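**Discrete fold encoding**
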Amino acid sequence: MSTIFYARVSTADQTVELQEQQARKAGYNIDLVIADRGQSGLSTKLIDRPEGKRLFDLLRHGDILIVRWVDRLGRNYRDVCDTIQEFMRRGVIIKTVINSMTFDGSTTDPIQQAVRDALIGFMAATAQAQAEATKEAQKAGIEHAKASSEKYKGRKPRFSAEQYQLVLDMLAQGSGATEIYKATKVTRQTVLRIKNDPIAAAKMLARWN
């Protein structure tokens, strides 16, 4: 049995190392790290990503798959649900770093299966909605930066694009400011600022990038 951590990063500001570090701090003992870099989560299926395909080839019965959140496993609601169900049919256990969720196919009770599948569907739908909202916020930030003729870029953000994304992810799952601060090392004040106006935070990142 192996414990495999899968990461996907889409920008230069995001790092696989940070995601792996967060997983290890959450208590996971990782045997192998597999990562796709420069891959869009909204446009590419997991199995169509170079390392995603490798992940499908490697996973066996009894293996544990660790991901930061379920959005790493597909480009939309259907992809995420299908991928998790496929891995569970193989006997793979899926665990998330955020909120420490666990999904496996060991239960044979139909009621428990229904509850599990409903939770997977809810989380997948939430992940897709959050990803689309983040994309729109970033798009608005980039357009604003391009349209602005002012040389002064304003205050430099004290958070990276990856920290910004992680804050949004955890806010979407109902995490509090203190919990997010501990996970991201972003100040509570910054967490609240991103929560209250994610588009303004995206614009700030765009101006400096």
About this structure: The two ends are 42 Å apart (CA to CA). The chain has eight helices and five strands. Residues 3-104 form a domain with the Rossmann fold fold (CATH 3.40.50.1390). The mean pLDDT is 82.
